[in-house]
Amino acid sequence: MKKNVAEFIGTFWLVLGGCGSAVLAANFPNIGIGLVGVSLAFGLTVLTIVYSLGHISGAHLNPAVTFGLWAGGRVSGKSILPYIVSQILGGIAAAAVLYVIATGNGSDIGNFAANGYGEHSPGGYSMLAAIVSEFVMTFMFLIVILGATDENAPKGFAGVAIGLALTLIHLISIPVTNTSVNPARSISQAVFVGDWAISQLWLFILIPILGALAAGVVYKTLQSK
Fold first, then answer.
1. How far apart (Å, rounded) are the C-alpha atoms in residues 45 and 132?
2. What is the pTM of this model?
């Protein structure tokens, strides 16, 4: 239960910090933080949670990460469902808090930092571009996570590597899909946007998980002697 609570809190912080920066601060008149600021916000949420709660649950904060770590032999199958439920609930709770804040000045939520492709991609990128982007970004994210947390890796630096990796991923792919690489993050925003965000949600659940599973298998192969 402690691990599940930690995953709930960690994912809550990731969605509130990352999506909150996108919804509230990215385009604030004259002093908005922009794409770079949002990218840093997502990276900082992971960095801070890895060092504060990672020793309790491993700080997955993401169903794709949980699947990838399972494929890489790091976690047992019985951990998958409880972790994923905790992550999704934490994300939705954060989105609810963000909804209350974002509408506090009379504004509507707009796209609410939801993930999308085609006409709902920030840069108008196609579904194929979104699939390739989400698969490759999640694959590389898991490679970094698996490598940085390997028993042979330098100790104490995993959070830095993982946080910077997520920052880089957002710097690359926000224009394509608003960057998911995390089904819980995508679900949480889509629940409040509805409509197109729900209809496109399948991509941001399926593709990151496939990318993570592939990375887990590849990294496990690299480790084999």
1. 25
2. 0.94
